[in-house]
Amino acid sequence: QFHSLAPMYYRGSAAAVIVYDITKQDSFHTLKKWVKELKEHGPENIVMAIAGNKCDLSDIREVPMKDAKEYAESIGAIVVETSAKNAVNIEELFQGISRQIPPLDPHENGNNGAIKLGKQTSQMGRRCC
């Protein structure tokens, strides 16, 4: 429904987390469509991370971790299985992303090589970081 709005959210982004539900094979297929969209229209060097959510429900898994790892490797992405419900591997996901994002030139904006974070205002008036 909101697919057409996506480019304004990832334009200029350093990283993207694409999430699928390990208990629903269809969500893994949809993830591949989002990756294709990012590759075609997103920033050239965007760091991609794939999060297989609901690892707390691994007994009803439909997407084998092996499949996710193979796909992530084929596109150069990080892959982590998470549980938003139980806060499993959330910190590890973002630490993995932070290790992949290159620092800015230390002379740019006088920021000693830190990652540049800033606020952007979308056309809808919402603010995001």
From TrEMBL:
GO MF annotations in UniProt: GTP binding; GTPase activity
SUPFAM superfamilies reported for this sequence: P-loop containing nucleoside triphosphate hydrolases
Family: Belongs to the small GTPase superfamily. Rab family.
Alphabetized SMART domains for the sequence: RAB (SM00175), RAS (SM00173)
Entry keywords, A to Z: GTP-binding, Nucleotide-binding
Gene3D superfamilies the UniProt entry points to: P-loop containing nucleotide triphosphate hydrolases
Protein name as catalogued: Ras-related protein Rab-31
InterPro entries reported for this sequence: P-loop_NTPase, Small_GTPase
Pfam name, any one: Ras
Source species: Pterocles gutturalis (yellow-throated sandgrouse)
Keyword Transit peptide: no
